[in-house]
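F.,

This is the one I mentioned.
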């Protein structure tokens, strides 16, 4: 597959591995909600998103359903700074420099790609197998991003390039008034992708989708729908109370021609005259909404196999992922399918219209006494969240800015559509004085100093900063202040590559793919043996929660000798086995 190259690419391809693991440090006075936001499932993390993503991986790897990011567009007017500490001569000269306009900074596109690549690599590790990532962008870098996403997520997992009609002001002097941006979507695995059940508000009013069902004839023309005979049994549903149709008058040679050509094409219809499909090979009779005698029908079909399954299922509805499927005859003898989707109806359009504007969102923030230049409209983010997730899923935004993703999620939760959000914002002032303040107001209901009180959305969030020092000291040792629960996340991630969801109140962290994973650290066994229980000995092993299968035990040392192998133990020494 063709790939994109740029200045500094070789230096950043594996840069995410060089970024040290840091710890999340809660800031209670900046958190919001009961228990200082601990039980909300929502996080605001202030810090460089490259380091923050690395810190979050041990807890959330493989658990995020929907990622939305709004990175710098690289317009030349944003003043973003490249700060990644990459040990490469051509990159180190960029450190701390504001990226300028086209012509002033000829390598600004290289810098943007160097900034985005390691972040996308880390973001991919957060997605569930059925997860989706959405990236907002305009024409400045959308072509580069597509190449980049093809490389990181693979081209086969490209889903769509949505066009967002921004509906903003167009009274400028440009030759072409640009009133659109893009939202580019990729799946973690296109074969397992799961979209939310949502109907685009621009769907035509008369569409059956609004009523919660889809309905259409299954007679089809074309080579993809080869003709075949299907026997409709006694009891097959009929939409009319009564049906009484004779067998079709079939022109001589029609069935043979259809069978030989493998289709029921329009040229065949013209050749044999006016024909109504399906062809009835028997009279079609029924009362009380059901056939009273079997009837053979012949046509090209869509959903032929599902129709046969329906018949084999005694003409009872088939349960599918997005609703119940059934078939019936119309009064004219045409077979229809109907999928009753209820709340699972879905109609996603590639052009996004009517989802608010930046100007309106900025005005709403101003009413909250918050100033932010280009906030995405929360209506757009709500739609993307609904598109990419379901009730209870985790949403991640690593370029949080003013916190629109969190605002949208809190309002959705108040409306009965709960999502958990993780926001990352590098700027201390933006994270603390804009995003945090905004979400606190949305949660509590006081919309700023203008004096307007409204019903709060409820919920809350935990506010965290990154530890100043990495998890491991310069000599590779675990920092003295690291707690058992904190190290447990890293041990689990190192061993499984997935986020830790356990309670970290036992040396048995959990069982993954048939093997139990243990951690001896920081006196978890209440100082029952050598080194406060951090060393694997015979007595310590006897004190561990039992598991009959293979066991992986992380500890400072192993003094069980040959017995460890006999007991099915694989020993891994901390901290040296934790080069995750």
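My design for it:
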């Amino acid at each position: 597959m063709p790939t994109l190259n740029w200045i500094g690419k070789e230096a950043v391809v594996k840069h995410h591995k060089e970024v040290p693991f840091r710890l999340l440090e809660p800031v209670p006075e900046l958190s919001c909600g009961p228990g200082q936001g601990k039980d909300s499932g929502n996080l605001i993390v202030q810090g460089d998103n490259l380091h923050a993503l690395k810190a979050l991986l041990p807890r959330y790897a493989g658990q995020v359903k929907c990622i939305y990011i709004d990175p710098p567009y690289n317009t030349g007017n944003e003043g973003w700074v490249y700060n990644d500490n990459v040990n490469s001569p051509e990159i180190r000269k960029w450190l701390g420099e504001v990226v300028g306009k086209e012509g002033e900074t000829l390598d600004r596109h290289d810098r943007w790609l160097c900034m985005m690549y390691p972040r996308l690599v880390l973001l991919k590790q957060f997605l569930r197998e059925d997860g989706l990532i959405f990236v907002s962008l305009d024409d400045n870098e959308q072509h580069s991003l597509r190449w980049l996403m093809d490389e990181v997520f693979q081209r086969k997992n490209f889903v769509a390039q949505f066009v967002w009609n921004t509906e903003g002001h167009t009274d400028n002097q440009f030759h072409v008034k640009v009133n659109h941006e893009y939202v580019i979507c990729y799946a973690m695995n296109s074969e397992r992708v799961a979209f939310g059940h949502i109907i685009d508000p621009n769907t035509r009013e008369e569409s059956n989708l609004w009523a919660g069902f889809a309905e259409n004839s299954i007679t089809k023309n074309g080579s993809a729908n080869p003709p075949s005979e299907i026997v409709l049994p006694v009891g097959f549903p009929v939409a009319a109370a009564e049906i009484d149709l004779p067998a079709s008058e079939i022109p001589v040679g029609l069935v043979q021609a259809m069978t030989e050509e493998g289709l029921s094409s329009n040229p065949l219809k013209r050749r044999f005259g006016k024909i109504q499909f399906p062809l009835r090979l028997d009279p079609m009779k029924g009362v009380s909404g059901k056939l009273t005698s079997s009837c053979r029908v012949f046509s090209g079909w869509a959903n032929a196999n599902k129709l046969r399954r329906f018949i084999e299922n005694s003409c009872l509805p088939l349960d599918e992922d997005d609703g119940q499927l059934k078939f019936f005859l119309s009064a004219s003898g045409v077979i229809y399918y109907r999928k009753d989707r209820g709340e699972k109806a879905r109609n996603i359009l590639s052009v996004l219209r009517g989802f608010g504007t930046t100007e309106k969102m900025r005005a709403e923030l101003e009413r909250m006494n918050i100033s932010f230049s280009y906030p995405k409209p929360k209506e757009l983010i709500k739609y993307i969240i609904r598109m990419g997730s379901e009730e209870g899923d985790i949403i991640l935004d690593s370029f949080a800015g003013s916190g629109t993703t969190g605002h949208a999620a809190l309002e959705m939760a108040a409306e009965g559509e709960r999502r958990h959000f993780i926001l990352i914002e590098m700027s201390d002032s933006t994270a603390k004085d804009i995003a945090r303040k905004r979400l606190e107001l949305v949660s509590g209901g006081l919309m700023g100093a203008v004096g307007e009180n409204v019903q709060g959305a409820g919920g809350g969030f935990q506010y965290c900063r990154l530890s100043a020092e990495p998890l491991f000291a310069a000599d590779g040792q675990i920092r003295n202040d690291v707690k058992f629960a904190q190290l447990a996340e890293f041990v689990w991630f190192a061993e499984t590559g997935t986020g830790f969801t356990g309670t970290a109140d036992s040396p048995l962290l959990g069982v993954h793919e048939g093997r139990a994973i243990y951690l001896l650290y920081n006196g978890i066994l209440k100082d029952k043996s050598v080194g406060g229980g951090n060393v694997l000995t015979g007595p310590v092993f006897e004190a561990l929660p039992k598991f009959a299968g293979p066991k992986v035990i992380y500890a400072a040392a192993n003094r069980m000798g040959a017995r460890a192998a006999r007991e099915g133990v694989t020993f891994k020494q901390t901290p040296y086995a934790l080069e995750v």
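Residues 234 and 558 are 73 Å apart (CA to CA).

Talk soon.
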